Amino acid sequence: MKRIAIGCDHRGFALKEQIMPFLQNAGHSYEDFGCYNTAPVDYPDIAQKVGEAVAAGNFDQGVLICHTGIGMSIAANKIKGVRAALCHNTFAAQRARAHNDANVLCLSGE
To answer: Which of 3, 15, 76, 108 has its CB 3.0 to 4.6 Å from that of 47, i.e. a possible disulfide?
Structure first.
């Protein structure tokens, strides 16, 4: 069982809502760092919360979702100890984890 920190901006809210039940059904625990609806938010604030939680060791991995995933990836990678990877398919996600020790997965909400 992994401890997952998950967060999104308003453009990633719908996908986050689909991912959380998947994590639970797979036996992982998670904490939702927001956002909690489709009202506009600043994605760097969410990236910072999730990134700091992962870097501090409170969570094994993180998931961040925004419109393209690019902004979340850039913002999260500014935090020491975070290795965020923007992945568009399972091949990239597997390689990011196995070869680059990525600890935060960034996704596009589109």
So the answer is: 76
